[in-house]
Write a structure and sequence with these properties.
- This protein has four helices and 31 strands.
- The chain is mainly β.
- The chain folds into two domains: about 220 residues, Immunoglobulin-like (Sandwich), CATH 2.60.40; about 210 residues, tricorn interacting facor f3 domain (Immunoglobulin-like), CATH 2.60.40.1730.
- An eight-stranded mixed beta sheet has the order 5-4-8-2-1-12-15-14, with no helix packed on it.
- The chain binds 2-acetamido-2-deoxy-beta-D-glucopyranose (2 copies).
- One 2-acetamido-2-deoxy-beta-D-glucopyranose binds next to strand 31.
- One of its GO terms (biological process) is protein N-linked glycosylation via asparagine.
- It holds the Pfam family Ribophorin_I.
- Component of the oligosaccharyltransferase (OST) complex.
Length: about 475
């Protein structure tokens, strides 16, 4: 024991001295970007930016981190930042995911915000590396006009910079903006700028200094479904009797240009191709295979207009709210379904059980402003812990349903600004003693027994009175 303690103390000491020797990563000012390509996809209401950066170290000391920069207004709408490093040449090229973390720098001009990307190997003097990044932005298209009637198309503004914001000099760069249709009302020109069909090309621009910025506005048609779920509560209840029960409460809104004037259902139905082009009347819900007991209801009751298609790979549920949704309109509804437990509950090598389930919103192509995922564990579960591949808020709640003695542990995971890219697997580990499973049947048996005894006693007393 003493020896072990000594080793531990030595280890702690080692780490402490390590940390004090290298207080925080030093961001090299001697990086430059030899070539940058940016592709901005504006075809839906979720904006995806694909960046390809060729980073070069012109300094003498190796650099292990490099920075992605964002204007402060954009960072609030940033749902996701991912980066990969391209390793190998041409056909043997593979992509290695890199860790990306927000960092605070004191002397950033104009409140610029940063994410630090950790490279696989430190970049030595004169070396280059190619990094590809994906940025996902939400709530960044502003409808203009802000109100439209049933027969009008929806137009939106997109604000950005023609020059990529960066703390490094960029030797050469080009930006491509893709719009959903050729109807582009206007766009800022920063020469050279070229519009062809559904694409605007900004650049190439040579030798731009660090923190160069050149604001642009693009005004274009976008009739994509602006389906935003203001709040989604998903409850996943684990029952060791073989079932996983899921209940999902949706608060949906059409976040596009507000509808003005009256709504004519006749016009909507007879001229479907031009009337209400930006509205939507059905949604696609992607569910796991082998789903059963599916229901879909709102505050009035069950909605029958839904279709379920299943195959061995997936299930797709098509739902139709009671009325089509126009800009600013809302709908609240509940979807519930059951799944076979053995598809999602496993035992880990250390004997704990774990649920392996999908995070994110099952309704395709939506932004969720606030997602609350509750995993209700069986009674008697202990030491729960959740593993989610991105940061979420976590806490524990208790839930009581009938027959529960001590209540069920509920692991709650909360996340804001959830996009389809967040649909990945998470795990909830817990300890469970199978004896606990007998608690409920035993209680039932005991209750029946007591009831039976009470009856016997009652009959007995009753009998004796009559006799007397
Ligand atoms: C709604 O549908 C579910 C499942 O099909 C059913 O169990 C329930 O009784 C229905 N409720 C009403 C009010 O029709
Ligand atoms: C969770 O399930 C997915 C899909 O079946 C699988 O790819 C993944 O490896 C599983 N994760 C764990 C930790 O079991």
């Amino acid at each position: 024991m003493g020896a072990l303690l000594a080793v531990r103390v030595a280890l702690v000491f080692f780490f402490v001295s390590f940390v004090t020797l290298f207080p925080s990563p030093v961001y090299s000012q001697e990086l430059l970007i030899a070539n940058a390509e940016r592709r901005i996809d504006l075809t839906s209401h979720i904006i995806r930016v694909y960046l390809t950066l060729k980073v070069e170290n012109t300094g003498t000391s190796p650099a292990s981190e490099f920075l992605l920069a964002f204007p402060p207004t954009q960072v609030n709408h940033l749902a996701l930042v991912k980066a990969v490093e391209a390793v190998g040449k041409r056909k043997k090229k593979t992509y290695v995911p890199l860790s990306v973390n927000p960092v605070e720098l004191d002397d950033a001009p104009n409140g610029t915000r940063f994410f630090s990307v950790s490279l696989i190997n430190p970049l030595k003097q004169g070396e280059t590396v190619t990094v590809e990044a994906l940025l996902v932005l939400t709530h960044s298209l502003e409808p203009f006009p802000a109100e439209i009637s049933q027969s009008e198309s929806q137009y939106v503004y997109y604000h950005d910079s023609a020059i990529i914001l960066s703390p490094y000099q960029i030797k050469e760069q080009t930006t491509y903006i893709k719009t959903p249709s050729t109807r582009i009302e206007s766009h800022t020109r920063v020469e050279p700028t070229k519009l062809s069909g559904k694409e605007i090309k900004y650049g190439p621009y040579a030798d731009r200094l660090p923190y160069s910025f050149s604001p642009i506005i693009v005004h274009f048609e976008n009739n994509h479904h602006f389906a935003v779920i203001e709040k989604l509560v998903r409850e996943v209840e684990v029952s060791h009797w073989g079932n996983l029960q899921i209940t999902e409460h949706y608060e949906l809104v059409h976040a596009g240009a507000r509808h003005k004037g009256i709504f004519s259902r006749l016009e909507y139905q007879s001229r479907a191709s031009i009337s209400g082009v930006s509205s939507f009347k059905d949604l696609l819900v992607r569910l796991p295979p082998r789903v059963h007991s599916v229901y879909y209801r709102d505050e009035i009751g069950n909605i029958s207009s839904s279709h379920l298609r299943t195959d061995s790979q997936k299930s797709e549920l098509e739902i139709e709210p009671r009325y089509p949704l126009f800009g600013g309109w809302k709908a609240t509804f509940v979807i519930g379904y059951g799944l076979p437990l053995q598809d999602f509950l496993f035992e880990s090598s250390d004997g704990r059980r774990y649920l392996n389930f999908s995070f994110g919103c099952p309704v395709a192509g939506t932004v969720v402003n606030k997602l609350i995922l509750k995993v209700v564990l069986p009674e008697g579960s202990k030491d729960p812990s959740a593993m989610v591949p991105f940061p979420v808020d976590q806490y524990i709640e208790r839930k009581y349903s009938y027959l529960d003695v001590v209540g069920r542990t509920v692991v709650v995971l909360e996340k804001e600004n959830v996009v389809p890219e967040h649909t990945s697997y998470f795990q909830v580990y817990y300890k469970f003693n199978p004896i606990s499973m007998l608690a409920e049947p035993l209680m039932l048996a005991l209750a029946f027994f007591l009831f039976f005894m009470a009856c016997v006693a009652y009959l007995h007393i009753d009998f004796s009175i009559r006799k007397g």
